[in-house]
Amino acid sequence: MDYATAQTVFANLEAGTFVGIDTLVDVKLKGGKSNPQQGLVTKAVTGATVMCFANKQSNAYENMVKRRLEQEGKSASDFELSPRKWGERVKGTPFVAHKDKMYLEVIYLHAGATEYRVSGVATPAAQINGLPEATSGGQGGLDNTVIIRTYALDSIAALRVNGKEYK
Fold first, then answer.
1. What angle do CA 119, 122, 123 make, to 5 degrees?
2. What is the number of domains present in the chain?
3. pLDDT tens across 19-48, in order?
4. What band does 12 get if pLDDT is binned at 50, 70 and 90?
């Protein structure tokens, strides 16, 4: 997806909005150059649900983590938002700029259908050498973690917002 289309999708974003997202990303495998499947594996996800925020008044991620900590009977005041490790958030939007490339930052809610492909051919995950395992941060001891994902716009195949689909 190009940046102009993505900007159109979120032009009137004031608070948060639910978004359907389909992505196709290259998968970096363990084992470096010695892994014969390195550079050949992609992960296609269709029908995932995310939330996008403009963060105009406050940080939606921080608010959600603190709210969930309180719901779990834990101290929300112990959670301190860390600065971004890479890129710069485009003020008042869900976009992140990094090294002449644009990204969409979302809060991941529900996984869609996942398909791994080796050289474009659907392949079971068990047949992919060096597939990395997903990890998440601690978030102040939160059990129901808030998952942030930042997608390069060129890895987004489609977005569905307010009954419209954008490709």
1. 90
2. 1
3. 999 999 999 999 999 999 999 999 999 999
4. confident
DSSP SS3 for 100: coil
CA dihedral 94, 148, 133, 139 (to 10 degrees): 160
Q: For 50-91, what is each residue's pLDDT tens digit?
A: 999 987 778 888 888 889 889 988 888 878 888 889 999 998
C-alpha span between 24 and 116 (Å, rounded): 9
Nearest to 13 by CA among 161, 166, 167: 161
Domain of residue 125: give its range: 3-166
- Token pair for residue 143? 């059990």
If you search the block for the tokens 């296609």, which residue do you land on? Answer: 44
Report the DSSP beta bridge partners of residue 128: none
The CA–CA distances, whole Å, from 132 to 107, 126, 156 equal 21, 12, 21
Structural contact between residues 157 and 6, judged by C-beta atoms closer than 8 angstroms: no
